[in-house]
Amino acid sequence: MNLTAFLICLFSTFAMTGLIWLIQVVQYPLMSEVGESAFVSYEQSHCQRITPVVLPLMTAELFSAAWLVWRPLPACSGLLTVAFAALLVVWASTFFIQVPVHNQLCVAFNPDQHRWLVQSNWIRTAMWSLRSGLMIWVLARQLLERR
Q1: How many Å apart are CA 130 and CA 127, to the nearest integer?
Q2: Could you write out the three-class secondary structure of 17-56?
Q3: Best exposed site among 27, 42, 58, 83 by fewest CB in 10 Å?
Q4: Residue 144's closest CA among 83, 92, 76, 79?
Q5: How far apart are CA 62 and CA 27, in angstroms?
Q6: What is the tens place of the pLDDT at every residue in 103-123?
Q7: Which candidate, 3, 14, 9, places its Cα nearest to that of 133?
Q8: What are the structural domain ranges in the chain?
Q9: Which residues, including other chains, have CB under 8 Å from residue 27's CB and lie 6 or more apart?
Q10: 90, 28 in Cβ contact below 8 A?
Q11: pLDDT tens for residues 126-143?
């Protein structure tokens, strides 16, 4: 089960890291180019379309990461605990910052709220990038241990 959990966690972390970088440097900044008259419709579509992509990945990552903290791989307990803490920051940022901002932007475009969305999303971008690095470290340790 640990190998399966690790592979699920590794895949979902890498997938979310790639997605968050795309969102951070492409999608969120381009939202300001949509135009005020079309923005609400665009933002609502964004939220409807992105949720079925990210929610299963985030959920799989959360449960597999929690499992790995509970049942860590050999010699990786500390790394997996730090990686899980970073994931908790991602979830907190998502639900206490990004989701409320998206909810406001689904009602009306506000340049300050949009700017806050882009700036605050660096929290998730940094945490998922850190998680990817930690997961690579865990993978390397596991591969070296099996040699």
Answers
A1: 5
A2: HHHHHHHHHHHHHHHHHCCHHHHHHHHHHHHHHHHHHHHH
A3: 27
A4: 76
A5: 24
A6: 999 999 999 999 999 999 999
A7: 14
A8: 2-145
A9: 46
A10: no
A11: 999 999 999 999 999 999
The predicted model scores a pTM of 0.95
Tokens describing residue 142: 């596991």
Which pair of tokens denotes residue 7? 């592979």
Give the whole-angstrom CA distance, residue 143 versus residue 147.
7
Q: Answer yes or no: are the C-beta atoms of 48 and 114 closer than 8 Å.
A: no
Neighbours of 56 (CB within 10 A): 12
* Residue 75, pLDDT score: 87
Please give the Cα distance from 141 to 135 (Å, whole number).
10
From the list 125, 145, 136, 114, the residue with the least C-alpha distance to 36 is: 114
